[in-house]
Amino acid sequence: MTATCVILDIGGVLEITPETGWVQRWEERLELPRGTVHERMHDVWRAGSVGSISEGEVREQVAVRLGLDTLQREAFMADLWAEYLGTPNEDLIDYVRGLRGRCRLGILSNSFVGARERETALYHFDELVEQIVYSHEIGIEKPDLRAFEAACASLNVRPADCLFIDDVAVNVKAAQKAGMQAHLFEDNARTITRIAAHLDARPLVPRRAPIT
């Protein structure tokens, strides 16, 4: 027996996450050349996304590398999380909530240490889907095919029975390469239509040859 499945990304799909310009504001405040923050923090951001550094260590490195005092560090991290978490995509979340019981539901997200705790507290994604696979917890980011394999394994479903939804084209292509069906998120209306089509699809039953 097969289980139809829908797996969604978080940032840019379940969360609306426009750029807030917080990094540029901090560079201006600290009188740093444009691009300095990402240049100094690049390896820390990368480590945080695959869980090879703790949230506490991230905070320490932010202070050391940018020369921030305690209050500045806390304000910097607050700005980081404000953009990261964005606002909930309520219409899509409500639609997905209505799918419970009709199909298996999961999340696959390129994430950062501390994301699960904050997104659980704010948006209760743990109540929306059955399984959430975060890159910082499995040590693998999309578009690595192993990330999609981990998501399917967490739900005990076949890739071919899954529809994956992401707002990044390279991740959509990778999901297809992993054997999943995939949809590039552009807006709620088209995404909901695509999910509905996936759930309504039925395997074709070969017709028997007429008896002669």
UniProtKB/TrEMBL annotation:
InterPro entries: HAD-like_sf, HAD-SF_hydro_IA, HAD_sf, PGP-like_dom2. It holds the Pfam family Hydrolase. CDD domains: HAD_sEH-N_like. PANTHER family: ALPHA-D-GLUCOSE 1-PHOSPHATE PHOSPHATASE (PTHR43611), FLAVIN MONONUCLEOTIDE HYDROLASE 1, CHLOROPLATIC (PTHR43611:SF3). This is Hydrolase.
